[in-house]
Design a protein that fits this description.
By secondary structure, the chain is of the alpha/beta class. It folds into two domains: about 1-135 and about 310-345, Medium-chain alcohol dehydrogenases, catalytic domain (Quinone Oxidoreductase, Chain A, domain 1, Alpha-Beta Complex), CATH 3.90.180; about 155-290, Rossmann fold. It has helices at about 40-45, 95-100, 145-160, 175-190, 200-210, 225-230, 245-255, 275-280, 295-305, 325-330, and strands spanning about 1-10, 10-15, 25-35, 50, 55, 65-70, 85, 90, 110, 125-130, 135, 170-175, 195, 215, 235-240, 255-265, 285-290, 315-320, 340-345. Strands 3, 6, 7, 10, 11, 18 and 19 form a seven-stranded mixed beta sheet that branches. Strands 14-13-12-15-16-17 form a six-stranded parallel beta sheet, sandwiched between helices. A two-stranded antiparallel sheet has the order 1-2. Helix 8 (about 275-280) links the parallel strand 16 and strand 17 (about 285-290).
Length: about 350
């Protein structure tokens, strides 16, 4: 089969590799149809690492996957050949202390598609995942939306961690795909006002179209001052969705005493700093967001009911052989890209 692997910094190559095989009665062979390019994929593409997760070349990335079931193990009950599915990329053991505590996303022996040292990614014609990673989609649901359910489920989980946000006033700092996913989830949860910032005006325009109450560019205006003029007592919650030090600083200034800062973005650096004097006096509640935790089906339900519409997100498409172009496009924030989708199926 064909597989698109990282072979160096900013280098992707198509390789012919053996088809994967089922090793367990619970395994499912998936013919991959769609893979969305994620910001974490770009970290591996441009830097070869995220923190302690360092790429050993060659390595296949990609985890925002949707496809068609090709074969199932003899113990699989959840899906059957021919089913179209969204793929949950996190594969947990189900038996460790974290899994038993309802924290499968921090499983002690988790394997995640496209994570170095864990599992090869989805930029291949075929992958094998456990049946628990397979979520059948409705007849009218597109494979694009099935792939988008992965980043959207992170938005759903982020908003869930913020608590009861009905009627809340919140900010989203960074309106790339994850920030827009948080925006969609927050609006579905009933927030009253959403302030969105980004350095790309085109993304701010989209955020406004998708229901943001106010948008601002920190490079051209004092976004903190403008928001606090409208919200003099501060905000209930801020979702940091760009992984930037300055956004963390802005979030602390924007929050009301007792407010919650949700760290959703992945910084390129190993460390960020906190203005602890301000954060301590405000008693800011810091909440890291680790991927999605049992939120894939909720995300799919919202998408399939059309309570949430993410059709606008897919702005560019590429065949597998041109995945390198997709990665360069996303890495450079070029041509108004929101989500680049790779069609692995070749129009099948």
């Amino acid at each position: 089969m064909k597989s698109m692997a990282l072979t160096g910094i900013r280098r992707l190559e198509v390789r012919e590799v053996p088809d994967p095989a089922l090793h367990s009665g619970r395994d499912v062979l998936v013919r991959v149809d769609r893979v969305g390019v994620c910001g974490s994929d770009i970290h591996y593409y441009t830097h070869g690492r995220i923190g302690a997760q360092v790429v050993q070349y060659p390595f296949t990335v990609g985890h925002e996957c949707a496809g068609t079931v090709a074969e199932v193990g003899d113990a699989v009950e959840r899906v059957r050949p021919g089913d179209r599915i969204a793929v949950e990329p996190a594969m947990s053991c189900g038996s460790c202390d974290q899994c038993r505590a309802g924290r499968a996303h921090t499983c002690r022996s988790i394997r995640f598609l496209g994570a170095p040292g864990q599992a090869e990614g989805g930029l291949s014609e075929l992958i094998v995942v456990p049946e628990e990673s397979c979520y059948p989609i409705a007849h009218g649901t597109s494979l694009d939306l099935a792939a988008l359910s992965e980043p959207f489920s992170i938005g759903v989980y982020s908003v869930r961690l913020a608590g009861d946000v009905a009627g809340a006033h919140v900010a989203i700092l960074g309106s790339g795909p994850i920030g827009l996913a948080v925006l969609a989830a927050a609006r579905a949860a009933g927030v009253a006002r959403v302030y969105v910032t980004d350095r790309i005006d085109g993304r701010l325009r989209i955020a406004r179209e998708q229901g943001a109450s106010w948008v601002g560019n920190p490079d051209t205006s004092d976004v903190v001052g403008r928001i606090l003029t409208l919200e003099p007592f501060g905000l209930d919650a801020v979702f940091e969705c760009c992984g930037k030090q300055e956004a963390v600083d802005q979030a602390i200034d924007l929050l009301e005493p007792g407010g919650r800062l949700l760290m959703v973005g992945i910084p390129a650096e190993d460390r960020i700093s906190i203005a602890i004097d301000v954060a301590r006096r405000k008693e800011i509640d810091f909440q890291n967001v680790r991927r999605q935790n049992e939120c894939v089906q909720t995300a799919l339900d919202l998408l399939e009911s059309r309570r949430v519409n993410l059709d606008y997100m897919v702005t560019h498409r590429f065949p597998l052989e041109r995945a390198g172009e997709a990665f360069e496009l996303v890495a450079g924030y070029r041509d108004g890209v929101i989500k680049a989708m790779i069609d692995v199926s070749g129009g099948r």
